[in-house]
Sequence to fold (67 residues):
Amino acid sequence: MPATTGSSSASATRSSRCRCATEWHEPDLARAYFDQHFTAPEHEWDDFDTAMRALAFDGLLAGATWE
Fold:
């Protein structure tokens, strides 16, 4: 999960950085933005294992490299 820094005011811009040291700036999002864009889940799964496989968190590509 990226680390974030910055103030907590509604119009502030946050600097985010991932473990690879890539840094980007993101505006703070207001509650209205979430209500407009993320009101309901798009898909629900029957159990945790199925959800993790569908979302690619099952470790299938762990250790894989591409050349």
